[in-house]
């Protein structure tokens, strides 16, 4: 892999946030010939911070894998991910409603554990000799006109030509760019996930199922080796902090989840019964993010969740963040930072806005799974209407499944194409 010397005046970048988006943008900048240094608030890797070894589960869509391929990092996902061949939708009665298959000519969607993906991406960034500074919590940043100076809670300073905020839903950089920027809102749900070490249930043969439970939502995939992964969105009227959720205890939450799914004729009750308390991950209160209207100011810019947080069930969070990271690096490679930031927004906003709108729309063929993020399960009439319409909308009843979000997935980035 040969890095290209950038044509623009940007030579150095501070990346605030050492999550997946931060590591991907650092690698993309490195390939573009721009020196990137990552500054992470935590002083250790996620796997060393206690709690679950695996973290929550997620899917990496074909478009996300293609973005990683553009910077020669797609192997990080394919090496650890489990194929997801289709998305299945079921009612609380166990009725099969739809099966949506991704386009056959694209990379297969992969299920990964967040911590495993983070570890793999971080290891790849380290292999490329990208500096990663931990224990660096950003306090503020000063745009001097000729560059940016960041100040951290330990009293240290860092300087570069630009600063990139990859610091997630509660971004400090976002508030520095726009003090009036919106903040995340509690969505009325608590989210849980777990890896089941062993179940007697049959393999789903690559299908990831989403179940519209009577009282809550449940997603699961059973793997060929007899292990399984599941997640649940449990409606909860009052907001709770992550610490408050964890203080309740895994055993108590498994009991409450069991009660929520007791009437459902899906694998949810069995998978919950097969889950050991130590394998339950309380991924915490689900939050939504209003549109962020200002992505950049001066020499500072946002990417990933800091700019556009997706619904957890959209399946596009990491994939869109990876796309944006690669596109930003291309823009900075070919243009001065001011023009690069404008070009980046013109490339990204229409696509991001369309996907955000799609995943919050009324359920149809490809947005149905995203509605599992709704805080309140449907009532009897709405359930009956949905269960009647979904098979028709997806043409399952006529034989063959619908294509699962083809327009979202068919998005290739030509790394060598010049940005004008």
TrEMBL record:
<protein>
    <submittedName>
        <fullName>FAD-dependent monooxygenase</fullName>
    </submittedName>
</protein>
<keyword id="KW-0503">Monooxygenase</keyword>
<dbReference type="Pfam" id="PF01494">
    <property type="entry name" value="FAD_binding_3"/>
</dbReference>
<feature type="domain" description="FAD-binding">
    <location>
        <begin position="13"/>
        <end position="357"/>
    </location>
</feature>
<dbReference type="InterPro" id="IPR050493">
    <property type="entry name" value="FAD-dep_Monooxygenase_BioMet"/>
</dbReference>
<keyword id="KW-0472">Membrane</keyword>
<keyword id="KW-0560">Oxidoreductase</keyword>
<keyword id="KW-1133">Transmembrane helix</keyword>
<feature type="transmembrane region" description="Helical">
    <location>
        <begin position="12"/>
        <end position="29"/>
    </location>
</feature>
<dbReference type="InterPro" id="IPR036188">
    <property type="entry name" value="FAD/NAD-bd_sf"/>
</dbReference>
<feature type="compositionally biased region" description="Low complexity">
    <location>
        <begin position="359"/>
        <end position="376"/>
    </location>
</feature>
<dbReference type="InterPro" id="IPR002938">
    <property type="entry name" value="FAD-bd"/>
</dbReference>
<feature type="region of interest" description="Disordered">
    <location>
        <begin position="359"/>
        <end position="379"/>
    </location>
</feature>
<keyword id="KW-0812">Transmembrane</keyword>
<dbReference type="GO" id="GO:0004497">
    <property type="term" value="F:monooxygenase activity"/>
</dbReference>
């Amino acid at each position: 892999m040969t890095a290209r010397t950038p044509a623009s005046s940007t030579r150095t970048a501070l990346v605030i946030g050492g999550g997946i988006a931060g590591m991907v943008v650092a690698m993309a900048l490195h390939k573009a010939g721009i020196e990137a240094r990552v500054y992470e608030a935590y002083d250790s890797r996620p796997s060393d911070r206690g709690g679950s070894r695996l973290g929550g589960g997620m899917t990496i869509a074909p478009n996300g894998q293609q973005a990683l391929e553009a910077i020669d990092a797609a192997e990080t996902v394919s090496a650890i991910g489990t194929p997801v061949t289709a998305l299945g939708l079921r009612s609380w009665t166990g009725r099969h409603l739809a099966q949506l298959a991704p386009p056959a000519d694209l990379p297969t969607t992969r299920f990964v554990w967040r911590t495993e993906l983070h570890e793999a991406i971080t290891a790849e960034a380290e292999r490329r000799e990208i500096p990663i500074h931990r224990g660096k919590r950003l306090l503020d940043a000063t745009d001097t006109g000729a560059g940016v100076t960041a100040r951290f809670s330990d009293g240290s300073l860092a300087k570069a030509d630009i600063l990139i905020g990859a610091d997630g839903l509660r971004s400090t950089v976002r508030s520095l760019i726009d003090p009036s920027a919106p903040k995340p809102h509690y969505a009325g749900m608590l989210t849980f996930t777990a890896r089941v070490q062993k179940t007697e249930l049959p393999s789903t043969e690559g299908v990831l199922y989403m179940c519209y439970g009577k009282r809550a939502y449940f997603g699961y995939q059973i793997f060929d080796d007899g292990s399984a992964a599941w997640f649940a969105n449990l409606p909860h009227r009052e907001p709770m902090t992550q610490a408050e959720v964890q203080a309740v205890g895994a055993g108590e939450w498994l009991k409450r989840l069991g009660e929520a799914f007791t009437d459902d004729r899906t694998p949810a009750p069995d998978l919950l019964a097969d889950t050991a308390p130590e394998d339950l991950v309380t991924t915490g209160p689900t939050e939504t993010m209003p549109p962020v209207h200002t992505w950049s100011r001066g020499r500072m810019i946002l990417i990933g969740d800091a700019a556009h947080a997706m619904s957890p069930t959209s399946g596009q969070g990491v994939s869109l963040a990876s796309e944006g990271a690669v596109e930003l690096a291309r823009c900075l490679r070919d243009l001065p930072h001011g023009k690069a930031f404008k070009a980046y927004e013109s490339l990204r906003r229409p696509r991001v806005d369309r996907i955000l709108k799609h995943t919050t729309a009324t359920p149809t063929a490809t947005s149905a799974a995203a509605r599992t993020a709704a805080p309140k399960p449907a009532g009897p009439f709405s359930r009956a209407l949905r269960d009647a319409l979904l098979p028709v909308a997806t043409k399952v009843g006529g034989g063959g499944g619908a294509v699962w979000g083809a327009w979202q997935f068919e998005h290739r980035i030509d790394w060598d194409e010049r940005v004008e």
